[in-house]
Structure formats: structure tokens, C-alpha cells
User: Fold this.
Amino acid sequence: MEENRIRENQMAEQIAGPDELYFNEEHGMLRQTVKDFVTKEINAHLDEWEAKGESPLHDLFKKMGDLGLLGIRYDEAYGGQGLDYWYELVFLEELAHIEGLGLPVAIAVQTHMATPAIAEFGSDYLKQTYLRPALAGDMVTSIAVTEPGAGSDVSALATTAKRDGDTYVINGSKTFITNGTQADFLTLLARTSEKPGYHSFSLFVVPTDLPGFEVSKKLDKLGMRSSDTAELFFDDLRIPVENLIGEEGEGFIYQMRQFQHERYSVLPSAYITTMDMINMTVDYLRQRIVFGKPLIKQQVLRHRLAEWLTEIECIKQFTYHIVRMKSAGLDATREITMGKLKAARLFQEIAQGCLQMYGGMGFMNETLISRYYRDSRVFSVGGGADEVMCEVIGKLEGF
Ligand SMILES: Cc1cc2nc3c(=O)[nH]c(=O)nc-3n(C[C@H](O)[C@H](O)[C@H](O)COP(=O)(O)OP(=O)(O)OC[C@H]3O[C@@H](n4cnc5c(N)ncnc54)[C@H](O)[C@@H]3O)c2cc1C
Assistant:
């Protein structure tokens, strides 16, 4: 007993705060690098890019690639950093300080949505030709799954890839594709068999400089305005058979695994971006005088803030639990799905609640909270709608 108490006291002396239970000095250095990048290279230009409806991804990703930020967990053999899940979390946490969701999502497409399957199942050729330049920031990528007739039900997709000699011929269309107007290659899910079932789909790397590819429309969105989103069209586009990722007929399974990275990448927004929203709102409430006193003196508002802080702490600790599970090699599909569902809802609740506390100022475009409010809707739809998350959880629970 006494020994345990002494050990606990010694531990308490060594660490300055709870985050030091998880992060060391080297994590701190990466954190500072990403923080500086976000402040100087992203937040400083975001108003301009939001107004323009897109960001200069080639320029931005090249700078990130030079700093080694696009391949934190990827294999060093292909230009990655070969670091662990905690470094990846540091990266995602700092990205969440970007003042709006457009850029964090555009970057996560490059790091967590379009490249994991190439790294996990792709050939050495695909890794050298596409993964390496993506990690270096020399190529911009998109993930192309959704179609006009297939979103939540991925298995309804109709884009075909038909084998013809040494090529696959791609016909069809994709929609809502993030980075779609700028992408150099797509990680694309297509139907390779007419048979029913999940083994009728394959995942491909599709370069966008080939005949038969067209950006048919740049889409106009409610939020995430600094990120470009496109509708894409494929008309007899021929790609070499080498561009098949892994085995034919396994693409659906690969994509379901790839979705885990995408959904996980959302989680830090729910405890970092929301804290940014709360901090700015508290500053406003301290200085805004209503009925003769600062709004922060209203107990009902303070309680609301306290409840959000409690939920934020829960989702943060849940995320850290997921990192521990991933680090131990455990399958965290159930937890990631629950986390994505909760993160999406909490983000929206806090964005809308903070806007309310700002009153009329919250409705003005000059107030940052209005951007977060517009952007917040995306998480309950993109990467799998809330209802789809519930379906997955239900299935995993056996009901
Ligand atoms: C800004 C943005 C960026 C995106 N980026 C990409 C991208 O880069 N690549 C890509 O491939 N896709 C992308 N998407 C597409 C996104 O993944 C889909 O929008 C999403 O999966 C939902 O599909 P859907 O829009 O076809 O909605 P639908 O499938 O038509 O569903 C409509 C609604 O029905 C409800 N619903 C669905 N299924 C069920 C159910 N089983 N039970 C009850 N209710 C249900 C949900 O509320 C859902 O929102 C993006 C979407 C947005 C908005």
C-alpha cells in the first residue's frame, strides 16, 4: 500500500498534466510544427480560400510533404515517417485548429481516405508510382466511392470496370468527390462483376490525365467552402491492369477497412475544434453586456458550457482509448463507428449552441462561429450518415 502511494506520488511529480500521460517531448515537437503550419500557411489565408470556393492543394500539400506531415504513419520505404498512432493523433488534433472543416477534410482525404488501401493492399508499383508522390505532396488524391445512385448503400454503385486485355475500361460517374477538381489520381471503387454480393467490386488507382476522364461539375456547397467538391464522369477510360489495388473482387472489403481511417480522422474535431468554439464564445460572453451584466454571469449559459465540456472530455478520452486499442493491434471498428456518430452530433450541438450565445452576431459571416455552424452539418452525412453508423453498431452488436 505504502509502496503504491510512494510510486503514485513520484509519478505525479514527473508529469505536469494529464496529456503527458500520452505525449512526450517528440510528440510536442511534431505538435509545434503542425501548429505553426496551420497558423501561418492555412488560417492566415482561409477567408480568401473560403470566398474562392477552393484551396491551392498542390502548393499546400507540397509544403506539408516537405515537412513530412502527409505520411506520419506510412512506411518509410515509400516516403512516410513510420511513426505510431500517437503521432498520428497529434497531427489530427492540430489540424482540428483549422478555422473551418474544408481544409481538415481535404487534407484527411490525402492522408486517411484515399491512400490507406494503397498502403495496405497495393503492389510495390502502385506504392512507388502513387503513394510515394501523394506522401511527398507531389500528387493530390481523391476517394471516389459515392455515385448519384449510391451513397449510404455502397453496394448499389453502377460504375463499371471491365477487363479488356491488359487494361480495365471504366464507365460511369461519381459525385460529391472532395478534392475532385484538383486530384491527380482517384482511389476508385467500381463494379467488376454483375453477380450479387460484396465480391463484385474492385478498388483502382485512376489517374485523371487519361482520355475519358472529365470533371463534369464543380459543386456549390452549404459549408466547407474552402474545399472543392466535384461530380466526375468516366467514358471508356482505360487504365492498366497494374492499377488494380490488391485482388479483383476484394475492393468492397478494402474500402470498408479504408472507411475506418476516414471515420477515425473526424474524432479530434469533436474535442479540439469544439473547444476552440467554446473558448471564443466564452470570450464573447465575458465582454457582452446584456441586462446590465456580462452574459457569462447567466447561470443557464454557464451550465450549458459545463455540460459541453463534460461531453468533450468523454469523446477525447474515448478517442485515446481507440488509439490504445489500435496500438495494441485490436479491431476498433465498433468504437470508431460509435465515436464518429457521437463526434458528428456533438460538433453540431456545440456549433449551433455557441451561435445562439452570440445572438445576432453569430448569424453574421464576419463571426467565425457562423462558418463552424455551416460546416458542422457535414459530419452527420459524409463518411457514412449517422443512421448508417447506427446500422453498423447494431450489426456488430448482433441485432
Ligand atoms: C461535403 C461532402 C463531401 C463528400 N466527399 C466525398 C468523397 O470525397 N468521396 C466520396 O466517395 N463521397 C463523398 N461524399 C459522399 C458521402 O459519403 C455521402 O453523401 C454519404 O455517404 C451519404 O450518401 P448519400 O448522400 O447518397 O445519401 P443517401 O444514401 O441518399 O441517404 C440520405 C439520407 O438517408 C438516411 N439514411 C440512409 N440510410 C439509412 C438507413 N439505413 N436507415 C435510415 N436512414 C438512412 C440518412 O440520413 C442519409 O443522410 C461527400 C459528401 C459531402 C456532403
User: Anything to note?
Assistant: The chain has three domains: 2-136, 141-249, 271-397. The first strand starts at residue 141 and ends at 144. The radius of gyration is 22 Å.
